[in-house]
Task: structure prediction
Amino acid sequence: MDIRSVDLNLLVVFDAMARHRSVNRTAEAIGLSQPATSAALARLRALFDDALFVRAGAQMEPTPRALELAPAVHRVVETIQSEILQQAGFDPLTAERSFTILTPDIGEVAFLPGVLRRLRHEAPHVRLQTVSRQRLAAAQALETGDADLAVGFFPDLQKAGYFQQALFDTTYACIACARNDAAPPRMTLKQYLAARHIVVRPDGREHMLDRFLEDKGWHRHLTLELSHFMSLLALLPGSDLIATVPRDIATVVGRHVPLKQVELPFRPPQIQVQQFWHRRMQDDPANRWLRTVFYEVNRRDADGQMPA
Result:
């Protein structure tokens, strides 16, 4: 027998007949008319070349062949109903799984604390892992499932096949050691460009500020280039260096070391912080829940400050 020739709806009729032993009761149980149920039973008999159910008094009793088939058919019908036709869902309270978030170290500091507090009560068994990828690898990580969500500034992901949701807009701040006498409270453009700069480019990525200054034809005196924003905690104190960084980084570094902010001699560009996911995850209940958590925890109004 070729399975392609089998109407699986007939197995539903067989399973109901095995349980109810009546054409009428079977028809009521599965929502068919009595003639349609009788026709299905006739097709079953032809399919298995066996009477399957024969009348004995008020009931339709199974033949030995039907008794042999009944447990297997019941398992198939139950599996289809419970595992294949069951609507996909996700229960964060009982879920035990790991999600991978694509974000730079600034994202680990800015986005994760509030999310972890939320998960402690809502999803105590869920684990998070963060990864960082170079510019061209971010899209591939989402596409292949190596990452579930990207959170931060990812202009490369603003293309077909990827969904995005805005969290907030922010900008840049210029910071220096509180004892850095070479950094006045407000710099002229000439002073700013001549100052000794630390520039942070995670994974070698070009930042919006780089492009902004380049378009203006302005070139900073680059003293040190870093891959991680958190290295500023050790390198700014006691130095005559300055760093122009996203405002959240200025806030975080300022919580740990004494800093002063230097007013920039120009209006810096805005940074749109968003979360991104691949289209194949759009309807996934687990991914939808994860996106909702990140959005509700990290969404800010205009000019909103980073939460403490």
